[in-house]
Amino acid sequence: MENKLKTHALGKLRIYIEPTHKVRHGERSLFRKLFPKSAYLHIISDAKKDGIMNASVYQTHSGYSNQGAIQQFSAEGDNSKLTLCIELIDSRERLEAFFLKHTQLLRSKVVIYKEVEFWDTE
């Protein structure tokens, strides 16, 4: 028996953010006041809560975002300004809803949407 390729249209949302970007809302315990949660961890956590199909964070080795200075990975230096890429995959509608829910957090960030195909077999 031969498998047939089955495709579905999905979307990919890429968010470029610095690891030093923190979230200062939500739970305001003393611990969170002293050590605010990283925005990229907050985005991944919310994506899971919202039922987004796939969420990943990729570290870059070199680059810049939003016309900022070029940053480069260094084993001996500070990498806190080296851009991270958060990638979310789901339907366009769900990604749009997620983006609109997080408009304040994503303001002035580079956010890219692209249509992709999801492959499966019958």
Question: Would you write up a description of this structure?
Answer:
Belongs to the UPF0166 family. Pfam families: DUF190. This is DUF190 domain-containing protein. With 122 residues, the chain is of the alpha+beta class. The chain has one domain: Alpha-Beta Plaits. Helices cover 25% and strands 38% of the residues. Strands 4-7-1-8 form a 4-stranded antiparallel beta sheet, with helices on one face. It has a two-stranded antiparallel ribbon with strand order 2-3. A hairpin with a 7-residue loop joins strand 5 (62-63) and strand 6 (71-72). The mean pLDDT is 84.
Layout of strands and helices, then pairs:
Layout: E1 5-17, E2 22-23, H1 30-34, E3 37-38, H2 39-49, E4 54-59, E5 62-63, E6 71-72, E7 84-90, H3 92-101, H4 103-106, E8 110-121
Antiparallel strand pairs: 1-7, 1-8, 2-3, 4-7, 5-6
Brief summary of the model shown:
Belongs to the UPF0166 family. It contains four helices and eight strands; from the N terminus they run E-E-H-E-H-E-E-E-E-H-H-E. It has 122 residues and is α+β, with helices and mostly antiparallel strands.
* Relative helix content: 10-25%
State the helix count.
4
Rg computed from alpha carbons, rounded to a whole number of angstroms = 17 Å
The third-level CATH topology is: Alpha-Beta Plaits
How many E strands? 8
**Contiguous runs where pLDDT drops below 50 for at least 5 residues:** none
Quickly count the domains: 1
- At CATH level 2, the architecture is 2-Layer Sandwich
Mean pLDDT over all positions = 84
How far from one another are the termini? 11 Å
CATH secondary-structure class:
Alpha Beta
Family: Belongs to the UPF0166 family.
Organism: Olivibacter ginsenosidimutans
Protein name: DUF190 domain-containing protein
InterPro entries: N-reg_PII-like_a/b (IPR011322), N-reg_PII/ATP_PRibTrfase_C (IPR015867), UPF0166 (IPR003793)
